[in-house]
């Protein structure tokens, strides 16, 4: 039997449309009185799988408190929530030392009861109501989360009640339309009491999200009722398989070609379940980044122009534009910039403009392209226009942040931009690498090294991984770890022999090490590529280190290396 609201008579009910309300199966009101307890329940109810880590919850509800006070407040709020739910708590809520879980299969929630058919809306669901009406806990992090959830709900509501467009019977494949479409398939789960599904969805959703930073792709979700596979014709299908045994998990990421369902990619990871619920997510995010780079290579093969920028039909504009820029070839740089001028519609405008602005850093750091007062003025205007649009793209923000700091010497503004970029997507090696550079230029070498370590781990399979090694070389040089700096520089140069930044910093490290023979060889290579670097004024402009002790440090190394 079902209630008038469409829920099972044996299930409790949670309403998040309008004022938050909880009722047990008999209709008794179990709504917690405190706003923080209500907010805690809402954070769990609207999460993808009903699971949130304690660290994440503390950051959303007590962002201004230190860790000890926030942890104590969370424990008190959990107690208050359990007391309000009374007998329901043991049925629908599980708490352990790392995470809280609201069992979504044991409680009816109004926003999840919508089936995609406006004619079957349960009587008790009020789709015109605001999400979590009147819920105010006085924390900026929670308010930001709530604004995003309300915006997502409004979009979903508009799409839900809009007339369904006619579905094509024989759609053209996405690749023929100059775009890549990827379909998300249900995860294959063995064990784990819901954790396996959470882990599988985390991997596939994170890969899709991280790819979309480089250029919007068509994402079709086949994990629930809705899309018709034949009509949408995605180019690739993504799926994860998770086997959970105790605290161990084996997860495999699979990519199929949609045409014949041929298996194109299979990558596996064995780790702990807690790696997916703790704040760092290090192993999981590294696995995501690895598969993004593998999938991007498949995109390049499948695209209409094999990943180039001709005729505005590239499959991954940002990914391939950056790779082209870092070829350090003036012709490739011009081709990449020309391509950005001619890409078609449907691309995040902030991303394209940010890439154009970012190219100015190569004129200063790699002596590729023109840099004068007119170019500086154009770059300043470009960055100003981008920031006014407030782009919600981590790659775009990292490009703008680096341009603002390294190129325009506005490190104070760059700091805020990088914070937003990391928050938007902590799985982008490019973003962590440029945060590391920013911290280096500001003299915070400890934080620079921490960010650089993440970039190196996440970007191990990236076509521009040598740039992440070079950043690590720069930091080690300024920290006085000259043997490590020399090794990192050599590793970067083995991948990209003509990378000026790696040559400059390795030369400085070799000078401090008094390795005259190797310094002589590196100095000759560098001056052959950049003859002007023999001039002290040019050296200052190439390094662009704003702190005197940093520039004195590298200049001393260069002097000891014969420059």
What does this structure look like?
This protein has 563 residues and is α/β, with parallel strands linked by helices. The strands form three sheets. Strands 7, 8, 9, 10, 11 and 12 form a six-stranded mixed β-sheet that branches. It has a three-stranded mixed β-sheet with strand order 2-1-6, with no helix packed on it. The protein has 23 helices and twelve strands.
Key structural traits:
4 domains, three-stranded mixed beta sheet, Arc Repressor Mutant, subunit A, Rossmann fold, 563 residues
Q: Give me the number of helical elements.
A: 23
Which value, in Å, is the CA radius of gyration?
A: 26 Å
Number of domains: 4
User: What structural class results from the helix and strand content?
Assistant: alpha/beta
Q: What is this structure, in a nutshell?
A:
The chain has about 575 residues and is an alpha/beta fold. The chain is built from 23 helices and twelve strands.
């Amino acid at each position: 039997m079902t209630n008038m609201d469409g829920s099972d008579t044996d299930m409790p009910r949670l309403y998040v449309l309008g004022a938050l309300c909880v009722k047990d199966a008999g209709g008794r009101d179990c709504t917690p009185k405190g706003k923080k307890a209500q907010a805690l329940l809402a954070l769990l109810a609207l999460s993808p799988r009903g699971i949130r880590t304690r660290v994440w919850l503390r950051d959303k509800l007590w962002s201004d408190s230190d860790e000890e006070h926030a942890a104590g407040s969370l424990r008190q709020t959990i107690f208050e929530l359990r007391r309000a739910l009374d007998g329901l708590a043991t049925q629908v809520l599980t708490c352990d030392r790392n995470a809280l879980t609201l069992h979504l299969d044991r409680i009816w929630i109004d926003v999840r009861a919508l089936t995609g058919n406006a004619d079957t809306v349960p009587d008790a669901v009020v789709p015109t109501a605001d999400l979590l009406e009147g819920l105010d806990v006085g924390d900026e992090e929670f308010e930001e989360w709530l604004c995003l959830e309300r915006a997502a709900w409004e979009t979903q509501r508009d799409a839900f009640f809009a007339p369904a467009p006619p579905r094509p019977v024989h759609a053209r494949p996405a690749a023929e339309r100059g775009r890549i479409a990827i379909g998300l398939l249900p995860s294959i789960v063995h064990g784990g009491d819901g954790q396996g599904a959470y882990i599988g969805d985390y991997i596939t959703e994170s890969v899709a999200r991280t790819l979309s930073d480089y250029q919007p792709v068509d994402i079709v979700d086949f994990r629930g009722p809705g899309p018709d596979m034949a009509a949408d014709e995605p180019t690739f299908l993504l799926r994860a398989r998770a086997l959970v045994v105790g605290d161990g998990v084996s997860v495999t990421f699979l990519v199929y070609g949609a045409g014949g369902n041929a298996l194109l990619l299979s990558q596996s990871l064995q780790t702990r379940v807690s790696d997916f619920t703790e704040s760092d997510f290090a192993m999981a995010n590294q696995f995501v980044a690895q598969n993004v780079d593998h999938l991007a290579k498949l995109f390049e093969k499948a695209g209409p122009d094999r990943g180039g920028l001709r005729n505005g039909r590239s499959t991954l504009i940002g990914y391939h534009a950056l790779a082209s820029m870092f070829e350090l070839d003036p012709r490739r740089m011009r081709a990449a910039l020309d391509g950005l001028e001619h890409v078609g519609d449907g691309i995040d405008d902030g991303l394209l403009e940010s890439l154009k602005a970012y190219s100015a850093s190569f004129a200063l750091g790699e002596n590729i392209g023109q840099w004068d007062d007119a170019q500086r003025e154009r770059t300043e205007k470009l960055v100003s226009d981008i920031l006014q649009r407030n782009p919600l793209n981590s790659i775009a923000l990292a490009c703008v942040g680096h341009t603002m700091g390294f190129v325009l010497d506005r490190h104070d503004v760059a700091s805020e931009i990088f914070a937003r970029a990391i928050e938007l997507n902590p799985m982008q090696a490019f973003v962590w690498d440029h945060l590391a550079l920013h911290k280096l230029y500001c003299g915070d070498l400890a934080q620079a090294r921490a960010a650089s370590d993440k970039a190196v781990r996440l970007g191990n399979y990236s076509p521009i991984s040598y740039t992440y090694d070079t950043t690590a070389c720069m930091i080690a040089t300024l920290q006085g770890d000259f043997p490590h700096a020399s090794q990192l520089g050599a590793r970067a140069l083995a991948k990209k022999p003509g990378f000026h930044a790696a040559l400059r910093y390795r030369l400085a490290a070799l000078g401090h090490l008094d390795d005259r023979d190797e310094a002589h060889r590196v100095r000759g290579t560098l001056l052959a590529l950049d003859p002007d670097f023999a001039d002290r004024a040019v050296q200052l402009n190439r390094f662009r280190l704003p702190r005197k002790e940093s520039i004195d440090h590298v200049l001393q190394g260069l002097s000891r290396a014969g420059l």
